[in-house]
Write a structure and sequence with these properties.
The complex is a heterodimer of chains A (222) and B (226). Chain A is an alpha/beta fold. Chain A has a single domain, classed as 3-Layer(aba) Sandwich (Glutaconate Coenzyme A-transferase). Helix content of chain A is 16%, strand content 28%. Chain A has helices spanning 3-16, 88-96, 132-138, 199-204, and strands at residues 24-27, 46-49, 53-56, 79-85, 102-105, 109-111, 116-117, 141-145, 157-158, 173-175, 179-184, 187-194, 210-219. In chain A, strands 4-3-2-1-5-8-10-11-12-13 form a 10-stranded mixed β-sheet. Chain A has a 3-stranded mixed β-sheet with strand order 7-6-9, with no helix packed on it. In chain A, a hairpin with a 2-residue loop joins strand 11 (179-184) and strand 12. The longest helix of chain A has 14 residues, at 3-16. Chain B has one domain (8-114, 149-215): Glutaconate Coenzyme A-transferase (3-Layer(aba) Sandwich). Chain B is 20% helix and 27% strand. Chain B has 6 helices and 11 strands. Chain B has helices spanning 8-12, 33-41, 62-66, 82-89, 100-111, 175-181; strands at residues 20-23, 47-50, 70-75, 94-97, 116-119, 133-136, 139-145, 149-159, 165-166, 182-192, 212-215. The longest helix of chain B has 12 residues, at 100-111. The chains are: A alpha/beta (222), B alpha/beta (226). At the A-B interface, helix 2 and helix 3 of A face helix 4, helix 5 and helix 6 of B.
């Protein structure tokens, strides 16, 4: 397991701690997809996929994949008892009507107000929107999991997003390789650190003002 | 007697250069492989293509896109097909992005005889550019227009001679929506069974929406995760 994977799993593990028993959760592509591996087995969580599954189970064993049974990223999945299949319009109907308790998404940029940009880098990579607009706007709780800075070391948490927005004022919490930040009406609150990073490190690499919580938890093992 | 069973050649005769083609499937899963391969063999090009995504470069509808057979694509996502992204950046492929759920509803609207839908998804983003808005009560909505196509191609697990369709697990995805939105809808199915064999309450797409049924030769590509 490389260093990169470890950091990704640390973020996923911290995000998983936000998932409560009984929730309906939609996980985005990339690091968010690792969150399912860190949910306690005793929890009854219904994982939702935009292509049309409610009630995904764990990943199939190698060699036992069903090519027709995949999540929204095209990765084979299984289902658990109580699962259902439906078309993509129904899948998004569930999202828009407010039936998804939590979504965990990747991000390119998040603003001080909780605006999210995660679908286009103009003139460069154009992945497309996918289901991010619906999820960001309509899930009851939106958690963004992303690296604290870009590959060039630039801040991704900013006063205003530079890239085109996915949705405005939608993000509740940002989990990065350095910190856990809550988006509040008063601004961004730094609540937790990922060891060995310090408050000063986080302030230096964040492009928006941070309110420092009274007591800061340091995540050593996740 | 109604019998919609056709051959691949008959199906391909309905798809012409320059037509608007809608396809079912999501990330390659649920794309109709036999029709797609037939289109490539027949060198069909210049398409306006409507569907969820651009697949993967060598998987499903992605092959049609990667080979430059599409002039315009209306989709929610092309990230899994870097060739599509490159064609777009090079100005060789026009792409209209629609949020995934909005796209699904635009297709559904087209298939059920509606002119469009009202949604608040995309407000405050560049998706709203150039679109009309409507105030209902105190809430603002975007008007998103319906989508239809000359030909729709879908994939299903099972059909009878009337074209009643049953889908397989998550390969259902956009297929039931796309099946409704084609002026001529072709269903590629794994198995054709006699009329009456499918339990009516199991049918997802009533055969009224399906014009032709062909038997699938099955998926012949390697999946991205393999």
């Amino acid at each position: 397991m490389g260093m990169g994977i470890d950091i990704r799993n640390r973020m996923a593990k911290r995000a998983a701690a936000e998932v409560k028993d009984g929730m309906v959760v939609n996980l985005g592509i990339g690091i968010p997809s690792l969150v399912a591996n860190h949910i306690p087995a005793s929890f009854d969580v219904m994982f939702h996929a935009e292509n049309g599954i409610l009630g995904m189970g764990k990943s199939p064993e190698k060699g036992l994949e069903d090519p027709m049974l995949c999540n929204a990223a095209g990765i084979p999945v299984t289902i658990k008892p109580g699962a259902s299949y439906f078309d993509s319009a129904i899948a998004f109907g569930m999202i828009r009507s407010g039936n998804i308790d939590m979504t965990i998404l990747g991000g390119l940029e998040v603003s001080e107000q909780g605006d999210l940009a995660n679908w286009i880098v103009p003139g460069k990579r154009v992945p497309g929107i996918g289901g991010a607009m619906e999820l960001a706007k309509k899930a009851k709780k939106v958690i963004v999991v992303m690296n604290h800075t870009s590959k060039n070391g630039e801040a991704k948490i900013l006063k205003q997003c530079r890239f085109p927005l996915t949705a405005t004022a939608c993000v509740d919490m940002i989990i990065t390789d350095m910190a856990v930040i809550q988006v509040t009406d008063d601004g961004l609150v730094l609540k937790e650190l990922m060891a060995p990073h310090t408050v000063e490190d986080v302030i230096r690499l964040t492009g928006a003002p941070l309110i420092i919580a009274d007591s800061i938890r340091v995540n050593e093992d996740c | 007697m109604i019998n919609k069973i056709g051959s691949l050649d008959e199906a391909l005769s309905k798809i012409s250069d320059g037509c608007t083609l809608m396809f079912g499937g999501f990330g390659g899963v649920g794309n109709p492989p036999t029709i797609i391969n037939g289109m490539i063999e027949k060198d069909i090009k210049n398409l306006t293509l409507i569907g969820n995504d651009a697949g993967f470069p060598h998987i499903g509808i992605g092959k049609i896109v990667s080979q430059g057979r599409v002039k315009k694509l209306i989709a929610s996502h092309i990230g899994s097909n870097p060739v599509a992204g490159q064609l777009m950046v090079d100005g060789k492929l026009e792409v209209e992005f629609s949020p995934q759920g909005t796209l699904a509803e635009r297709i559904r609207a087209g298939g059920v005889g509606l002119g469009g839908i009202l949604t608040d998804i995309g407000i405050g983003s560049i998706i709203e550019d150039g679109k009309e808005k409507l105030l209902i009560g105190e809430k603002e909505y975007l008007i998103e227009t319906a989508l239809t196509a000359d030909v729709a191609i879908v994939s299903a697990k099972k059909s009878d001679y009337y074209g009643n369709l049953v889908y397989e697990t998550s390969a259902r995805n956009t297929n039931p929506l796309v099946a409704m939105a084609g002026a001529f809808t072709i269903a590629e199915v794994d198995k054709i069974v006699p009329l009456g064999e499918i339990d009516p309450s199991e049918i997802v797409t009533p055969g009224i929406y399906v014009d032709m049924v062909i038997e699938s030769k099955g998926v012949d590509w390697r999946w991205a995760w393999e």
